[in-house]
Give the backbone structure.
Amino acid sequence: MSAVQQAWLDEQVAQCGYCQAGQIMSAAALLEANPDPTDQDIDEAMNGNLCRCGTYPRIRSAIKKAAALKTAGI
Amino acid sequence: MTMASVAKIARRTFLIGAAAVAGGVAVGYWYVSRPYANPLEGELAEGEATFNPYVKIAPDSTITVIAPRAEMGQGISTTLVALVAEELDVPLDMVKVEHGPASFAYYNAALLEEGGPFPFYDRSLIAETVRGALGGVSKVLGFQGTGGSSSIRDGFEKMRQAGAAARYVLVEAAARKLGVAVSELSTANGAVEHKRSGRTVAYGEVAAAAAAIEPPSTVHLKDKGDWKLLGKPQMRVDMLAKVTGAPIFGIDVVLPDMLFGTVKMSPRFWAKPARADLSKAEKMPGVVKIVALETSYGHGFGVIAENTWAAFQAADAIEVEWDVAEYPADSAAISKTLQDALASADGSALRDEGDVDTAFADAPRERLIEAAYEVPYLAHACMEPMNATARFKDGLLEIWSPNQMPTITRYLCSEAAGIERDKVNVHTTHLGGGFGRRGEMDFSIYAALMAKEVGGRPVKVTWTREEDIRHDVYRPAAAGRFQARLGDDRLPEALDMRIASPSVIGSALRRMFPSISPLGPDRTITDGSHNQPYAIPNCRVTGIAADIGVPVGFWRSVGNSYNGFFHECFMDEIATAGRTDPVEMRRRLMADWPAAVKVVEKVAAMAKWGEPLPSGRAKGFAFTLSFGGWVAEIVQVADTPDGIRIEKVWIAADVGTALDPGIIEAQLVSGAVFGLSAAMGQEITIAEGMVEQSNFHDFDAMRISQCPAFEVAILENAERMGGVGEIGTPPAAPALANAVFALTGKRIRTLPLSKEVAFA
């Protein structure tokens, strides 16, 4: 499992889950390009992925966590 | 509620919910005390034992728990399974979770319990008697449904009982096997332990023997203080599947030899094709068959093809002229129908205390506050488009459906296919969003009808996004006229609210059970206005059903979604007119309801309400009691060059007993985002009898860049357990509108707010 998926599990992000495959792929792409994104970087990179359950606050936390996991080499 | 007003209401008939009324006719029998048969008996694997409709244990100690409610993101499967696991003494990660079959055994009593005219806090004899009777109706109907934020209230006792009863017989069987007394045994981690001898017996070893033992009629449940799982955040049982992209949704269903389809239904509701030419569509590559669909949900065509894209292309190529609409053909006419209803003498007052007419008859002008409000239709816009898969082979209809109502789905699909109900199996998948939309049966019925046409091959019927947005059952448009009279203490001494809206119950009956007429007032029209914990000496809330014809349905929080906006924005107007702080006004009006006062005070403390803000920032407050959840929200907005930005939302909610704080927090945030999305920018409009919006470009929702920070507190002061899934939604829109007023001085009484102000 990737650092992004692990962070998604740790932060218990998904609700219905339908959009989450896309959210995770966008987050993975963001972290490939930018290993230490700011809040604004996250909002800009993730703005095309709609979530009707409103999981956005936990998505933000999970991306921060995934960035830390990747930096730590986990 | 006073006894006098109870008597006034009791003299009238009132609706107890479409399914209850309709299901009584549909199911037609009355098993009051008799339990339903265990539906798991018929589907056990080799060597597997079942103890009740919720628990199966295999010889290798695989423990399967049935969570018979739709998992649409609200985390219901996790908490329902935790109720069983807590009493069975197994950790959640040892349990396999299944939704289980459609079965009367999984009736939801709590879903109908609050269908009477009583506020949630009314514990009078008559209110409790009606609750008991309506819960009994649900049992009699075998009404398995997920909605009304009711699943945990329904499952709290019975699923713990199921776990405890299974544990009881497992311990009994282990005692016999080990030749020791039951009192010497304990349970943990899915095994029975005899600590003195160090011996353990895994549940699987004695499951078959245990299943043959009759459990006692009542089982002792753990005290709250002994809970290991309940009351603490759990890892969700569906999370791994959802972060690994597992194929769990209806749209993921794949069966051998499967065909694919879509539907093209009349964009004018219930209109038929006046003229249609299928010849071009039928000749397109990959098209197998195009069939006419004539149902109580509407008329149109089902396109069956070798793949979904071919079906979409062929649906586009169908040339058809539809009949005209039989209802007001555009949004202006619909608005006029609502206004005419408000001006009429019609209506039914579900709250009527004191003497409202006298209180207003002599009111001095400067004490009067008057306002008119209006809100539009809204679509559910689930992320997973409507879909279902069906196979009709050897007289048996199998349906794989992401749905919230398995037993009614089974019934209506059996009717549509013209076969007996016991020849229909409904497999409920995960739902990619529900919000009430998937309590409908249209997508399942269409798949069932199309499966009859293809000689036993399964058909997966997937709607386009455009078909989904244009064929929803919408959150009703609604309008209200309100007046209040201020007393000498600058608090409201009289309040009169008239609210007109199409009846959700009436509309649901028309499409689900067209032979049944609505029986009385629809309480959902004023739900969130007539039952709020405010002491106002003269108070009347009247609902007027305005029949419009556009199908309306259950949209997350139902009537509370717009009554929260009406009631709480008007309360803000009253506070402003009386020069009273909105939080202080609530504290005084809600003094008789301590749970309400505590969430108001909690959220005010969290948000530092009353402390001065830098210029260009403002806060708004709102409170709604819905589905037994007492919820106060404060929204902070900021004026930015790009428009108004929602910076932060504080939520304090009391749900009585909080079984999983992590899931409850997620649901409160989710509900608020849902409400804010609608309040900021969502609107369904009608032109020439058709919905104008079609996809997320013109019916968008909040994006991550617009999402505020959240701070949530969960309280447990309320006497009765409340729901969770919908309660965050109703206060969100009014808290935002009140914040916009505080920021701009502009009192916006219509939604969406984006018609008056821009959001960043």
Chain A has four helices and no strands. The interface with chain B takes residues 1, 5, 8-9, 12-21, 24, 42-44, 46-47, 49-60 of chain A (CB under 8 Å).
